[in-house]
Every structure is written in C-alpha cells, then in structure tokens.
C-alpha cells in the first residue's frame, strides 16, 4: 500500500481493559486513530457495541484468529464492498431469544442494507460456557463444537461469504453484575474468542460472535438499573447481532496472495501497556513494526514491554498522546524530536 499509513489497534478480549473491555467503548479511540491513519486494522472486540457499530469506514474488521495469521505473514487482507452473510444460532433458547435475534437481523437488513443469505439453527445446543481464570480474566469452552461446524458448513453451501455466530454462553450472573458495575472483565469475551477462532480456523472466512440470550438473561440485562457508562449499550437492548452483522458486511477476506494489505504495510501497532504477550506484539518484533503501548488502558494482565524485554516500543500515557505520536509518524517526524531536552549526538 504505497503512500498509505496503516495502523493496527488491538485490545485483547476478556482481560478487563479499561478502554475496550466493554462492548464498543474503544470505538471513539479507534475512530480518532482512523482520522489520522489511511487504514486501521482492528477486531470485533474493539468496535462491537451490541446493536451499534460506529467504526469509521476505513476500519478493517478482522477476527482475532485471522488477525494472528495476518501478523504471522500467513495471509493478506482483501478488501470488499460487500459480503453475503450466513447467520448460525444456537439451539435450545426460549422463543424470546430467537425473536430478538430475528428482529435484529431484519433491522440490519431493512435499515442497514446488510445481505443475509440464510439463518440456521444448530442441530443441538452447543453447551458453551465462560471460564474465569485465576487472574480474573475469562476464557471459554464449547462442548459440542461439531454441531456448530456442521451448521457453518451448511451456511457456506447456501452462499455465505462471512459467518455471524450467536451462541448462548453460560455465565455466572455475579460476574455479569460485577462487569456492569465496572468491577470485572467481560464474562462473555473469552468464550466469544474461542467460538470465532474455531470458525475462522476451520473455514478461513470472516467470522464474529454475538451472545444469544435466554429470556432470563434478556430480562437481567434490561433491568439492571443504571450501570457503568461503558456497559450502557448492553443495558438498553441486548441485540448483540447488530454490531456483528454491520462489521461483517464489509469485513476483508483472507487470501494467501494478491491482498490489498500485507503485514509489511503496517506502520504501527497500538496495544494496552500490559498486553504485550500476544502474537501481534511478538510479530511486531520480528517484522520491525513500532508498538505504541498505552499505559492508561489498564488490564488484569502483566505482560509489559519491560518484563518481556521488547524493543521498538513507544510508551504513551493515554490515547491523546497516541494521536500525537501517530500524527508525527505519518508525517515522517521522529516523535522524540517533539520532546525536550534534545539528545546530544557524539562522534564515535
């Protein structure tokens, strides 16, 4: 991408990120980055906001497993104007859950112009659940993954170019309350990552997950009182499929060659300061991509640049500072030349 300034904005799922640990609350930061960069590569966790997906048009919506393949150099991103989307719903939820899902799908069709080729239900319940770790982050387990794979395969046969998955994730309601109170990580996040990674790894198509809620869960979310502002989108209406369908509508496809964006096109990667242990951060060391580590975006993780002895990392106190760094980098200015005192050079 000659003369294009390309940035990746990544916030890991289920780690209690202060910015991006809730649904869509990192969208303002992402759009600020997108106002500077020509292209921003990000992932569903960063911009999904229940029924809302307000990411800028130059934000590329890439699922986490596919993002890892991209940064390893195994795949490239091919931009598209439109994807035909297949929707897969979990079996076993009361009618109210399916009604909410179908109404959400139809709303995105009639208002957003999203093209849906099929809506399928798994043959049996997938039995997906959230698992809390000792660090208070969340991962997930899926017991009947084959029934999900079979439904996805059928959706592809019917013409799906992207897959929207909506499973019921079993969570502890105490964890949901802590999350709504701003005192815990997103309990759905880890399990959602497991599901989307499984589908992406199996089929190589754009994919994303949205929780499918039971009647009781719908009631709990919409009757939670005044919640942490970052969780407000969920409390006013848990139509999670909306943001996923909007993101998948133009999500880039993965190709092995002939893509529009390659890993060596990336000029910078932005991550929370304590989340340097993932593949994008480690790949940045291999490819020589500068990392901007945002200190103010705290998480429950402790993988800092110092602990991992990482090079090529610029520490920013907050996203305001990040914007300034990106503007300097885009203009070809060494950010250090904007600080004082100026380092003196010596003749060796």
From TrEMBL:
Protein name, as recorded: DUF3326 domain-containing protein
Lineage: Bacteria, Pseudomonadati, Planctomycetota, Candidatus Brocadiia, Candidatus Brocadiales
Top-level taxonomic group: Bacteria
Pfam families per UniProt: DUF3326
Cited InterPro entries: DUF3326 (IPR021763)
